[in-house]
């Protein structure tokens, strides 16, 4: 028998006889090796079984547990485009425990959203999303079925209809005028103002659509981490990125006083009219108690998001709540929902008190539209549905981040192409003149301006991978078998820059949409098929109005390090295609527009 002195009493150090130590180490290695081979063999066997149903799209070799998560890099759409070059326009990935397929060609995207539109009409169920989005019941996250059809139809009819859009446009124009007025005021003292475009635009779009950053956080956070490459990235980098991404903008132009709560305050007005009186110009400066409470709930929720959704792809982690994030998130969601419920009750009381007298204000509030529907169809529009629709994380996500993001990219492109600004100004001067401000009805007549918008959406589609779809039946794409339950990612970024389809794909050429060279080519920044963006018409009108007004009223120039005339176009991290560095620019009111601007 070998004597093993595990604890040397004299020295107090652990001691193990050498031959045994070597044997144990060898044994340990053997066990690890055998376990690894066993997992690999099982994994292969499962893959092979799937193969037997049909030929799966090609893809890289997966490792157990992580699948291909370790291969994905930031920004994800670029990383997937690189993989597409290697494995083709349709390839498979294993994202932790989930199978995914990535489509990167116009033809195959068309095939997915025409022939197989119904098959891919669902969304993957992700635990984090479920927690944040009322069990995954909001429009953008809901699985395909009667519930999604109901809320999508209701939103299209009552919140995003042409009639409703008509009543939103004056409000949007008013916000644009306010923005121009402030920028002019800032520029007046020094002959030009340095502005951070995204902050301006985000304020604008949030106040316009009356929805919160909450929208963006939930949809995109889960997606981002869904596709984040490692657990580490999600827990640390992902979290930091999320915090950067979804924090309300606090950086201020030098000329302004702090208004961090401006957008929330304005959103509250659109959703529920929480302020009893608005003094026209200064209405944004003071927050209602409701807006304040909402802001506080966001402040708690936002930092938790990035850390939480690693569970989505590694089910083992769902069993543990190592840092207590899940519990904290559940508590924050509870607080948020209790607040929403109180808000609905308050609005209901306000409407009752207002009955007969406040017709106009009734029409303005989104909550009131839904509460009046509840009166006629209480079953269809119960409080839960109202909450889902009004505060849906996705219904107006486009309305905030996407519209502001697209405008920011468009302005960056324009700053790098001053000749395009001149052309657009000439077009606006010719069609609109210099005696009034451009309005939403002018936009359809301004071809070059629309070319700018389209080109910005082509080069920088703010949801470059759309929102993930999921197949609900087996189907065949590009000749490959796609099993039911597969996540579908469509890389619009790669599709819009495919050199086999687009001439000079990386070049900014608004003219291509005027000279017919883009005719028939697939441009799908809003997706395609039944899950495509219901806010497309509103977004296009808004983008035209916002960019058109900025171009009409101001001359633009680059600032600081980019004064040589080149704006850095590096993409940041996040699934809604942020810029790496927020765009700053110098604006100077155009002489020919001064009279109009002064009267705003
Ligand atoms: C530049 C602006 C916008 C862009 C680029 C954009 C893009 C998109 C994209 C790519 C999708 C996913 C489509 C898919 O998965 O196939 C989407 C979904 C959605 N968008 Fe937008 N969007 C914008 C503005 C808006 C606006 C203004 C609204 C509402 C006011 C809106 C509301 C929605 C909703 C509710 C969904 C989910 C649809 C569903 O799952 O049924 N979006 N958007």
Automatic annotation (TrEMBL):
It comes from the Eukaryota. InterPro entries: Cyt_P450 (IPR001128), Cyt_P450_CS (IPR017972), Cyt_P450_E_grp-I (IPR002401), Cyt_P450_sf (IPR036396), Plant_Cytochrome_P450_Monoox (IPR050651). This is Cytochrome P450. The keyword Ligase does not apply. Keywords: Heme, Iron, Membrane, Metal-binding, Monooxygenase, Oxidoreductase, Transmembrane, Transmembrane helix. The chain crosses the membrane at residues 26-46. Belongs to the cytochrome P450 family. PANTHER family: CYTOCHROME P450 (PTHR47947:SF53), CYTOCHROME P450 82C3-RELATED (PTHR47947). It comes from Digitaria exilis. One of its GO terms (molecular function) is oxidoreductase activity, acting on paired donors, with incorporation or reduction of molecular oxygen. Gene3D superfamilies: Cytochrome P450. It holds the Pfam family p450. Heme binds at residue 533. Its cofactor is heme.
